[in-house]
Specification:
21 helices; alpha+beta; 735 residues; 5-stranded antiparallel β-sheet; binds adenosine-5'-diphosphate
């Protein structure tokens, strides 16, 4: 498949059909395009159109096969296909748009322009390929070019070629307009002028067999018959058939019996003083296809009237009329296409207008939605920016996707340095390492709260409480999950509150308690010692009532001493005053030591302590571990019934890097909702415990602090009425 320009006219002469000296060259020069556009039948229309666009002067493209012309497609043909198949045409081929077979002309066959023009009119064609004797393409004659050449040649060679000149002049005038109405009017005006006829008209045959004059050029005093309907009898069907076959009539005198005009028609035409007339059919093939018989579609008649006197019509006049009727036929095809195109344009315009309206509506709706979104976002920003907390949203990749102004203000960073950045890059590596476990917990779908120290604007360190709330995508919509049915974690919301003031108050409170406790300890010890001395009776015997009061005073002082000691212990641990002196120690001896320390108390309560230990070495400060164990044992004894047993044991923890201590009792148990709070200060399951059991509510807090200092964990499991078990872990080695 190829499209190519043929070789120049030098090639034509090489065909041997026309010698340079033969004298025909002058005829062919200027009217034959020796390089017409050609392509194979299979060339896609997209490519054909591209070629046409490259050669705007080309009004058609020839389909060739082995240098023989097999079809022709004019610009109009191509446009018609595009209009008919607006979506499919680029894939279609030249064969879908072309006319075949093609009328061609053997080069030496015609030697006069007038004859050439006649060929065009006769075949109702606008392009005539010129071929050699073997039917090989030599060039192309375009009717418009031919007409122009005819005019020029007639000007040069005055007076010959007069007919051709007249014809070409009229035809060019006709072609100046695209409007059918103008074309028809110009035609009748020109014929009237040329033939000096009294009336020239174009009569259109209507589908019902009647017809009417649609264009007319008439000279006074003869009346106009424009728009006047002609009854069917005036132009019966059999006449129409004859004209459709190409019949022409030139009647010199309607009254002459030889003219063959029926009596009724004579009556009709006499009304208009018509004496002589010439009638030429205008055939209108729907597509100017030469394959079909164009005469079969009679569109109308081109009629010339001579009024009052007879007129002998010359061959020239008849010939001219026929040629011009052919031109009208061509104009009709063009007009039809134009009309069709205009209709399509109107349709497309209205479709586009509709689409445009819909689009405008959509844009309006979108703008409204956008406005609403902007307003709601502004509202959200207003709220989040005015809350005295740091708010952020972190996606599942650990990158900030939202933060309020307080966040920026606090970190002293512009939005560009936060949004889209990772926590690590925003907070710094060291800080990130500290909070990493919490980030991982949140990204695992669990809410987490922790306290931390955060530098305000990178300088002043402040205490903060941070809560991470996971953002879960609950799978309920199709395609919303990963197929596991489990919620997807999209990220987490981070709320950071400045608790520096609260912490300062807490510190002040602790310090106050510590100072008070410290100040109380010395006098208390002295009171305690005095009371003990009095109880021995060495300072004199008391009455029975006095003895009882002394015992109560001793008991309460004892409790007060313990409380003061506990408060001071806790304060020392929390303030970091005491350091854990960790080293390798054998758990067996620690257990034994603690059990022994509590033995007498246990006996007093008729309780047995059973120990169980494996050979294990831990990395700890033994004094503090024994303190923790005795504390737990003390509680176990306090909350167990007489006659029961307490199990104190140690074994390697599940992760093997820890030792797991446990103190199991079979006492009253702890309600589940208190299992965590009992490790906080002064928290007791029953507030009367402090009185009844002599507790302070600080023992477990101290245990918790000690274990924490050892990087271990402490927790309790319990069942009400069954018993409790306290666990804590201590590392086996410094790592
Ligand atoms: P206390 O000096 O009051 O015992 P702790 O901090 O040691 O203070 O204990 C806090 C509270 O925890 C106790 O008052 C008690 O209510 C509860 N508790 C601790 N150990 C046990 C246990 N083994 N059995 C039942 N309750 C316990």
């Amino acid at each position: 498949m190829s499209t190519q320009r043929r070789d120049s006219k030098q090639g034509n002469c090489e065909q041997g059909n026309c010698e340079p000296s033969c004298g025909h060259e002058s005829l062919w020069d200027g009217i034959v395009d020796s390089q017409p556009l050609t392509a194979s039948r299979q060339t896609r229309l997209a490519k054909v159109m591209a070629r046409m666009a490259e050669h705007p002067a080309a009004s058609c493209i020839l389909a060739v096969h082995g240098r023989k012309v097999v079809g022709i497609a004019t610009r109009q043909d191509l446009m018609a296909v595009m209009v008919r198949s607006p979506d499919k045409w680029p894939q279609m081929t030249l064969a879908d748009a072309m006319t075949s077979p093609v009328i061609t002309l053997a080069k030496p066959a015609i030697t006069a322009l007038a004859l050439l023009l006649k060929q065009f009119a006769h075949h109702h064609i606008s392009h005539l390929p010129v071929v050699d004797t073997q039917d090989r393409l030599l060039g192309l004659i375009d009717q418009t070019r031919l007409l122009q050449a005819t005019q020029m040649s007639s000007r040069q060679e005055n007076p010959p070629l007069q007919r051709a000149q007249l014809f070409s002049e009229i035809t060019l005038k006709i072609r100046q307009s695209l409007q059918l109405k103008d074309i028809l009017q110009t035609t009748v005006n020109e014929i009237q002028r040329l033939l000096a006829a009294d009336r020239v008209l174009i009569y259109q045959v209507l589908p019902d067999g009647t017809g009417q004059t649609i264009s007319e050029a008439v000279v006074p005093p003869y009346p106009s018959i424009i728009g006047m309907p002609f009854p069917e009898e005036v132009f019966p069907e059999e006449y129409q058939g004859l004209y459709a076959q190409g019949r022409v009539r030139a009647i010199a005198d309607v009254h002459d019996p030889a003219s063959g005009i029926s009596a009724c028609l004579i009556e009709f035409i006499e009304q208009w003083d018509i004496r002589a007339k010439m009638i030429v059919p205008i055939v209108h093939p729907l597509k100017p296809s030469l394959g079909s018989d164009p005469g079969k579609h009679l569109w109308g008649l081109l009629i010339v009237h001579q009024c009052r006197s007879p007129r002998q019509w010359s061959d020239f006049e008849l010939d001219l009329m026929q040629q011009l009727a052919g031109q009208i036929s061509l104009a009709l095809s063009q007009g039809q296409l134009l009309e069709y195109l205009e209709d399509r344009v109107k349709l497309r315009t209205s479709e586009l207008t509709q689409a445009n309206l819909a689009l405008k509506q959509e844009i309006r709706e979108r703008q409204q939605v956008e406005l609403a979104l902007r307003q709601s976002e502004a509202q959200l920003r207003l709220i989040t920016n005015n809350l005295p907390v740091l708010i952020a949203y972190v996606d599942c990749a650990g990158r900030y996707r939202f933060n309020n102004e307080v966040y920026q203000h606090w970190l002293g960073k512009p939005p560009a340095q936060i949004n889209g950045k990772s926590i690590k890059s925003v907070m710094g590596k060291a800080y990130y390492e500290k909070i990493r476990p919490y980030v991982e917990t949140a990204l695992a779908g669990e809410q987490v709260t922790y306290e931390s120290e955060l530098a305000f604007k990178g300088e002043q360190v402040r205490s903060v409480s941070v809560t991470y709330i996971p953002h879960l995508n609950i799978p309920h919509l199709k395609g919303d999950d990963d197929g596991t049915g489990l919620p997807l974690i999209k990220g987490f919301f981070a709320l950071t509150t400045d608790i520096s003031d609260r912490k300062a108050i807490e510190r002040m409170k602790d310090e106050f308690i510590a100072v008070v406790s410290h100040e109380l300890r010395t006098p208390l010890t002295s009171i305690h010692t005095s009371l003990k001395l009095m109880a021995t009776g060495r300072l004199g015997q008391l009455s029975e009532d006095g003895q009882q009061m002394l015992e109560v005073a001793d008991e309460n002082t004892d409790r007060l001493v313990r409380l003061v000691n506990n408060v001071l212990d806790l304060q020392r641990i929390e303030s970091g005053e005491v350091t854990i002196d960790a080293h390798e120690c054998d758990v067996g001896s620690l257990i034994a030591e603690a059990a022994e320390a509590m033995q007498s108390t246990a006996q007093q309560h008729d309780i047995e302590i059973q120990t169980q230990s494996v050979s294990l070495v831990i990395w700890a400060d033994p004094d503090y571990i024994v303190q923790t164990l005795t504390n737990l044992l003390g509680n176990a004894i306090k909350f167990s019934s007489p006659g029961s047993t307490i199990h104190l044991s140690v074994r390697p923890h599940i992760d093997l890097a820890m030792a797991l201590f446990s103190v199991q009792d079979y006492g009253q148990g702890i309600p589940t909702n208190k299992l965590n709070s009992i490790f906080e200060r002064f928290q007791q399951v029953d507030s009367s415990d402090s009185r009844k059991k002599g507790g302070t509510g600080l023992g477990l807090t101290i245990c918790h602090k000690i274990v924490e200092q050892h990087s271990g964990k402490i927790w309790a499991e319990s069942q009400l009425g069954v018993g409790s078990c306290f666990y804590f872990t201590i590392p086996l080695s410094p790592n």
